[in-house]
Amino acid sequence: xxxxxxxxxxxxxxxxxxxxxxxxxxxxxxxxxxxxxxxxxxxxxxxxxxxxxxxxxxxxxxxxxxxxxxxxxxxxxxxxxxxxxxxxxxxxxxxxxxxxxxxxxxxxxxxxxxxxxxxxxxxxxxxxxxxxxxxxxxxxxxxxxxxxxxxxxxxxxxxxxxxxxxxxxxxxxxxxxxxxxxxxxxxxxxxxxxxxxxxxxxxxxxxxxxxxxxxxxxxxxxxxxxxxxxxxxxxxxxxxxxxxxxxxxxx
Length: 251
Ligand code: PGA
Known about the structure:
By secondary structure, the chain is α/β, with parallel strands linked by helices. The protein has one domain: TIM Barrel, CATH 3.20.20.70. The chain contains 11 helices and 8 strands. The protein has an 8-stranded parallel barrel, surrounded by 4 helices. Helix 7 (139-150) runs parallel beside helix 8. The chain is globular. The two termini are 15 Å apart. The mean pLDDT is 97. The structure holds 2-phosphoglycolic acid. 2-phosphoglycolic acid (PGA) is lined by residues 9, 167, 172-173, 211-214, 232-236.
């Protein structure tokens, strides 16, 4: 089983000053040994502050989106190379909020995954179904269909260069968490898909995260499963105490 990844998705929270303070405090409170890899996924403008504060720590940082383009007339976009320049390790791609509010498709997500990989960033590709799809019994086919399209042209030469987050939309920010069995079932299905696409060796090593109302009191049960290699955490990532409590729970 891969070392777990605790990915903290701040969403539209914490500007540079708050991010810097928060990161300094986090470094002072990290348990030793650190039971998981930790990544802070911050708004673009806060990433340099994280780079400065976390530079000498084991904690990494990354963005919540990335442009599919490298440069040019794309007002408002931020390229993967720019993020690599400030030593981002990860870029979240295809989060359901990007899909919902910005019309991002699986095809867009696929192009962004490739752009991230070209610049040496590790994409955290998000997939997952809405409630009506789950109630229809189509959660697995929907989620694997998203992966199929987004990864159609993506090559994986090193399994460390791809992370997939299963985030059922009905569990995001709702307090309603998938059960460890639900997360594990989807993890097994995604592993099977990756096996078919990239072969057993790669499939076994790509990290599969669960996201959706993860918090200190459920993270250990979720991440204790064979095919759940960590968590993508929104709400519970904002308070330092709850991040430290999640790390303690993973220890
Ligand atoms: P949540 O968000 O932990 O607040 O449910 C998870 C996410 O959207 O990544």
